[in-house]
Design brief:
single chain; alpha/beta; Rossmann fold; seven-stranded parallel sheet; two-stranded parallel sheet; 10 helices; about 45% helix; about 15% strand
Length: about 270
């Protein structure tokens, strides 16, 4: 039986994933800062669900939760780093304390979990790590610079991690969801109190944006993540949603155009031969 450790399991995509994992008969460690919303799910699966009160920014809580999960189920087969939140501000508007906090949760939180589960995975020469990113890592919308930066950092780390762990039988998958019908754009978004009028037509529009018509179904996303993580050859990169496909294809096309346009200047910087 596969054992999953899912952070941010109390709501949104994390809750959908936890439910799908338990419904298929697997073990699930349900990690969240506030565990009140998890008791009903754990009650429905008393032998296969374990609630873990864990703030991913707290070293001790992370270590205790992983240790308790291994004591209960013997191993952690799949780690899903899903906990995270958004921060909206023009780069100049960003507040230092908030910037550090979003990096601590979205980047260093996953690092803490990864480092905690890897000794067991390396010992068994098996396991899967799924890091939930965002199309924001590449689309880089105005007003989401710091959030985009956290996800870009997570993706860069995951790329190197994948190459380090593949020879050891451990997979790493980055998941880039588009917009899904969760409360991410509500309670999972923080907004800078600093507001500069010059950014009203760029970052300011995103600050004022109200979202409630997201096209993605989080339950379908959960099943897609399970299929990818349990595949014989898990993908290193997975987009979720037709909006994600469209957005990232657009980014890739724009990057290719820039590469081709400036190819002559890029190639001019090599040392002269001879």
């Amino acid at each position: 039986m596969t054992t999953w450790f899912i952070t941010g399991a109390s709501r949104g995509l994390g809750r959908s994933l936890a439910t799908a994992v338990l419904d298929r008969g697997d073990n699930a460690v349900l990690g969240a800062r506030n565990t009140d919303a998890l008791h009903d799910l754990a009650g429905q699966h008393p032998t296969t669900a374990m609630i873990a009160a864990v703030d991913v920014t707290d070293d001790a809580q992370v270590a205790d939760a992983v240790r308790a999960a291994e004591d209960r189920f013997g191993r952690i087969d799949v780690l899903v780093n899903n906990a995270g939140y958004g921060y909206r501000a023009a780069v100049e508007e960003g507040e230092d304390e908030q910037i550090r906090a979003v990096f601590d949760t979205n980047v260093f939180g996953p690092v803490r979990l990864i480092k905690a589960v890897l000794p067991g995975m390396r010992h068994r020469r098996s396991g899967a790590i799924v890091n939930i990113s965002s199309i924001g890592a590449r689309a880089c919308a105005p007003g989401s610079g710091y959030y985009s930066a956290t996800k870009a950092a997570l993706e860069g780390l995951s790329g190197s991690l994948q190459k380090e762990l593949k020879p050891l039988g451990i997979s790493v998958t980055i998941v880039e969801p588009g917009a899904f019908r969760t409360d991410f754009s509500g309670s999972s978004i923080r907004i800078s109190e600093t507001e500069i009028d010059d950014y009203a037509e760029t970052a300011g529009k995103r600050r004022a944006r109200v979202e409630g018509t997201q096209p993605g179904d989080p339950d379908k996303a959960a099943h897609a993540i399970i299929q990818a993580a349990t595949a014989s050859e898990p993908p290193t990169f997975l987009l979720l949603g037709t909006d994600a496909l469209q957005a990232i294809r657009g980014v890739a096309a724009a990057e290719a155009e820039q590469i081709n346009t400036w190819e002559h200047l890029s190639a001019s910087t090599d040392l002269d031969k001879g």
